[in-house]
Design brief:
The protein has 238 residues and is an alpha/beta fold. It is 37% helix and 19% strand. The chain contains 8 helices and 11 strands. The strands form 2 sheets. Strands 4-3-5-2-1-6-10-11-9 form a 9-stranded mixed sheet, with helices on both faces. The chain starts with 7 loop residues before the first strand and ends with a strand.
């Protein structure tokens, strides 16, 4: 059987993937299901790093609507991503997958500080690396953090795993006949202002020639198919 097309991937997952059907909080069964998907990719001899959002725990826009300082709201979101990282690490370890959590905001009692070369070394040793804390700076999304870390660790592809199966010209839940894209050039995605990934992350990937695959996390075998180079979701690239 042919090996994977990509040997090192960074998976960007929304915080909602940790929440289960209710959409808020951390659900141990949801974390376990997610861990099984990651383990399946790992067993393809693919080096896996992850960046998680925190929408299941905190949404900064809710604080901003009440007059909260943007930097404070963003720092709270960064802490939420670390909570998600620890929960997913626990689920992966219980699946027998050796995992390390690194954080851009140092908290040495519970996780390693993010160090690029150490993260790469963990990947080379077959460990899954979960990078929490976003970029460590306010005003940047976890999409941008994912793009930045993917470039830093020399990932071959950034996979944005969401609840939609591709990029569409319009919201497919509003317009079921919306045009679906199998492939987009970076500049096309930027001009479309695609909602599935922010423009800063897109620009960073474009400047560093890092392909992005947008796919449905919950579709069985979707990430494995993407790793094999099979057509799945939307490929954003040259």
């Amino acid at each position: 059987m042919a090996g994977p097309m990509y040997r090192r991937v960074l998976l960007k997952l929304g915080g909602e993937s940790m929440a289960g059907p209710v959409g808020v909080g951390i659900s141990p069964p949801a974390a376990e299901e997610l861990a099984k998907k990651i383990k399946s990719v790992k067993e393809m001899d693919v080096e896996v790093a992850l960046v998680l959002g925190a929408g299941n725990l905190w949404r900064g826009k809710d604080g901003l609507a009440q007059g909260m300082e943007r930097a404070t709201a963003d720092h709270m979101g960064m802490l939420g991503t670390i909570m998600n990282a620890l929960a997913l690490q626990d689920a992966l370890e219980r699946q027998g997958v050796i995992t390390r959590v690194q954080t851009s905001i140092e908290m040495r009692a519970i996780a390693e500080p993010y160090i690029r070369l150490r993260a790469i070394r963990h990947l080379e040793k077959g460990r899954v690396v979960i990078i929490g804390g976003g970029t460590g700076n306010p005003y940047f999304t976890t999409d941008t953090a994912a793009a930045l870390r993917a470039v830093e660790i020399n990932a071959q592809v950034l996979v944005k795993a969401t609840k939609v199966d591709a990029v569409y010209a319009e919201d497919p839940q509003i317009n079921p006949h919306a045009r679906r894209f199998d492939h987009l050039a970076y500049i096309e995605a930027l001009n479309m202002h695609v909602g599935v990934i922010d423009s800063t992350a897109l620009t960073l990937c474009m400047d560093n020639d890092l392909p992005i695959i947008v796919l449905n996390l919950w579709k069985e075998g979707s990430i494995e198919s993407a790793m094999k180079g099979e057509p799945v979701g939307t490929l954003i690239g040259k």
